[in-house]
Write a structure and sequence with these properties.
With 177 residues, the chain is mainly alpha-helical. 39% of the residues lie in helices and 3% in strands. It contains 8 helices and 2 strands. A two-stranded antiparallel ribbon has the order 1-2. The chain is globular, with a radius of gyration of 17 Å. The N and C termini lie far apart (34 Å).
């Protein structure tokens, strides 16, 4: 069944029917080096290019899908969203030449509660479509953080400050990740 409207999917549809898929508001940021996502990271960390797959709105289709992924153990949603984004990135030379995909890790406590990392599932879907390796241990969660759900943008930034570190054993220097 379609994750958006619960109608039966036809053979060529995956996760969403064509009608619901057309309502997934994609950003298209991967086509532009300077975009809103890049502006949000400017001055916070060094990067060459930033993208995001779709717009997140409260009560929107993407929120519904991510809640089903995170809280209802619908792991196939993460894989399929990753595959879709990977297909779009593969079509653009600046993204198709990446060396590895690095998922954002969960804290051990959160992982124990959920049993899986939704970011890893999305990364695996992207890696599958793009034919790229996943560097699952490159980024380490070194501090537990509260839920981001009810926080403002500034509170979210503060909440994850110093929560991550690169694992020095994973060699990413000079790589496109």
């Amino acid at each position: 069944l379609c994750e958006g409207c619960k109608r039966p999917l036809v053979r060529t549809e995956v996760l969403l029917c064509i009608g619901c898929a057309s309502h997934l508001a994609k950003t298209g940021f991967h086509h532009q080096q300077f975009n809103e996502a890049a502006l949000r990271f400017t001055g916070r960390l060094p990067f060459h290019q930033v993208s995001s797959f779709a717009w997140f709105t409260s009560e929107g289709l993407l929120q519904h899908l991510l809640h089903r992924l995170k809280y209802d153990s619908q792991k196939q949603i993460g894989m399929q969203l990753g595959r879709q984004f990977g297909q779009e990135l593969n079509a653009i030379a600046a993204w198709a030449d990446i060396d590895a995909i690095v998922p954002v890790p969960l804290h051990k406590k959160k992982y124990a509660e959920r049993g899986y990392n939704q970011s890893m599932l999305i990364a695996e879907g992207m890696g599958e479509t793009m034919g790229k390796p996943i560097e699952a241990n490159a980024l380490q969660r070194i501090r537990y953080t509260d839920s981001q759900t009810l926080k403002t943008r500034e509170e979210r930034i503060d909440n994850v400050s110093k929560a991550f570190a690169l694992d020095p054993r994973v060699k990413l220097e000079g790589k496109h990740v």
